[in-house]
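[retry 2/3] Deoxyribose-phosphate aldolase: previous attempt timed out, resubmitting with same input.
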Amino acid sequence: MHMKLINNYIDHTLLKATATKEDIIQLCNEAKKHNFFSVCINSAFVSLAKQQLKNSQVKICTVIGFPLGAMSTQAKVSEAKFALLDGADEIDMVINLGLLKSKDFDGVWKDIEAVKNNMPNNTLKVILETCYLEDIEIIKASELAIQSGVDFIKTSTGFGTEGATLHDIKLMKSVTKNGVKIKASGGIKDTKTALDYIHLGVERIGTSSGIAIVSGKSSNSND
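[retry 2/3] Deoxyribose-phosphate aldolase: success.
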């Protein structure tokens, strides 16, 4: 099978609370230079990134309900709506983990569906935050997200206790259908690790170590 170049898998990510405008501009310049698929940033910076990337192919991905997923559905919908107006192409939203753990499965999928209904033509990725979930919960969360019409299921925020694992990806892969893709994120810092995920069938890698990954170096970055 023909594999895309590794840079085309990467959402070049900067989500830490202290990221400055200068940091975001640098991120955008790096994404253009290395031809990454997208930049992934907090929603306050979407319009700045839009400006920086206007003559490039690089997409803008933003996060909503991040990183806990525990805000009201209305807040998530509103955040998504304004991020799209500012120029976001893709949205990574965090699932409501508390509702999942309460076995309020209707609440979980309605939360996701409410966001997806507002962005029928844009890519929605749902972050499961697998580090807090039992295997059975990973499977259930994946199924609920897929049922809600998402485009991707994603492992992690990068702010939990652990990031992606090959085990969790295999569980997610076992239930994916309807063309839903998988994004691995959290702790992916070198070329070998990225390729391990890609060989498992992951379609996108979220990382702040994209430059190290495409240049074959390892990175000390902690996302």
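[retry 2/3] Deoxyribose-phosphate aldolase: Residues 21-34 form the longest helix (14 residues).
[retry 2/3] clearing retry counter.
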